[in-house]
Amino acid sequence: MLKEKENVVNTFLAFVEVSIAWLSFNLSLFLYFGHFSFLRYKDSIILHLIIGFVWFTLGKYFRLSQLHRSRPYSAILFNCVALVLSGTALLGLAVLVFDLYYIGFDPLIYFGFINLILMFAFKVAIYSSFKRARAHGKNTRAIIIIGDYTATPFIEQVLKYKEWGYKIVSIIGNGDLSEMYGKLIPVLPLDTDIAKLLESKTIDEVIFIKDKMIVEEVEEVTNACSEVGVIFRMYSPFFNKLKSKAHIHHYNTMPLLTIANTPTDYLAMRAKVVFDFIFSFLVIVLASPVFVFISLLIKLTDNGPVFFKQKRVGLRGRRFYAFKFRTMVVNAEELKAKLMEDNEMDGPVFKMKKDPRITKIGSFLRKTSLDELPQFFNVLMGDMSVVGPRPPVPQEVKEYERWQLRRLSMKPGITCTWQVSGRNDIPFEEWMKMDLDYIDNWSLKLDFVIFLKTIRTMIKADGH
Question: Where are the strands (E) in 314-447, listed by range?
Answer without folding.
Answer: 319-325, 385-387, 413-415
